[in-house]
Write a structure and sequence with these properties.
Elements (H helix, E strand, L loop, with lengths): L26 H56 L7 E5 L6 H8 L12 H9 L4 E9 L3 E8 L2 E6 L3 E5 L4 E4 L10 E3 L3 H6 L1 H20 L8 E6 L5 E5 L4 E6 L4 H16 L4 E5 L10 E4 L1
Parallel strand pairs: 1-3, 4-7, 7-8, 10-11
Antiparallel strand pairs: 2-3, 4-5, 5-6, 8-9, 9-10, 11-12
């Protein structure tokens, strides 16, 4: 019987086919591709150079324009500051009652014939507000050659007696020491300790506000012209007294508020006038009985 050979998986050898390498393109094809790459590279570099030159030319043109406008601006500025057309010919001043218009213009730094661009309106306002009498200031430049100046002066309502006399304004500020020509027919505030007044800002503000409040309430009570206040005295405990009228009647008010107390004082005066009497003093500072008034007739 013939023997057959049996091949197993272990001794069977499989033949693997290896792919054959791709054939190289012809020489003329490779040369053409290289030329195309070279052309693209050269074209990109040329485009970059063109773009760079374009931006440089634009930058040079822009720089030239800037230089031109700067030079033109300087020439224009020089012309504006030297031309007779911009010399100040008219200044309208309004709102000043105590100060002369010449004083206002001097404080502002303005003058006829002066170039309108030499001083800005804002700087003129700042200069005006440095003057002690100025509460507000508004300066408007009107081209080509004029200004409008409008001011509000401080209103003095009392004199404060410390080391010297100072003016108190209607807003409760001490704005200047008293000088010749300043109003003197004002109530004089006495009794304040100069050192404490200068050192303690809270105390200073509180007392001045109460002084202005008292004067306001006194006017509202209809007493301002009838019984002018000669003196307002502030005690160490911050209680207030006033001396009013030609005979300096002593009216003790105590501490603020003052409105109701001053209305009671008005009623006392009305009643005593009917009886042809004049008070020597009136005390309105009863803390336990605020409605009680102590009066002594002359």
């Amino acid at each position: 019987m013939a023997k057959k050979s049996i091949q197993t998986g272990q001794n069977r050898r499989r033949k693997t086919s290896t792919p054959s390498a791709a054939p190289e393109p012809p020489l003329h094809t490779r040369i053409g591709a290289a030329v195309q790459v070279l052309r693209g590279s050269v074209s990109g570099k040329v485009g970059l150079i063109k773009t760079t030159v374009l931006w440089l030319s634009r930058a040079v043109a822009l720089a030239a324009m800037v230089a031109f406008f700067v030079a033109a601006g300087r020439l224009l500025e020089k012309h504006m500051h030297t031309s007779e057309a911009f010399a100040t010919r008219f200044i309208d001043v309004a709102g000043n009652e105590r100060l002369a218009s010449e004083t206002v213009l001097q404080a502002a730094g303005l003058a006829l014939g002066k170039n309108v661009f030499e001083l800005s309106p804002e700087e003129a306002e700042r200069r005006l507000l440095r003057h002690p009498w100025m509460a507000t200031a508004n300066v408007e430049r009107r081209l080509p050659n004029s200004y409008r100046v409008e001011v509000t002066e401080r209103e003095p309502v009392a004199l404060l007696a410390l080391d010297t006399l100072y003016l108190i304004s209607s807003d409760g500020g001490v704005f200047k020491s008293m000088e010749d020509g300043d109003p003197s027919d004002l109530p004089v505030v006495t009794g304040m300790d100069p050192e404490a007044f200068a050192r303690d800002r809270s105390l200073r503000t509180r007392l001045l506000v109460n002084v202005v409040s008292l004067l306001h309430d006194y006017r509202d009570a209809g007493l301002f012209r009838r019984e002018p206040i000669a003196e307002i005295h502030v005690a160490p405990d911050e209680s207030f007294s006033v001396y009013v009228g030609e005979d300096a009647t002593h009216v003790r008010l105590g501490k603020a508020p003052f409105r109701l107390k001053l209305r009671r004082f008005r009623r006392v005066l009305d009643r005593m006038r009917k009886e042809r009497l004049r008070p020597a003093y009136v005390y309105l500072d009863n803390v336990r009985r605020p409605d009680r008034v102590t009066v002594r007739a002359r």
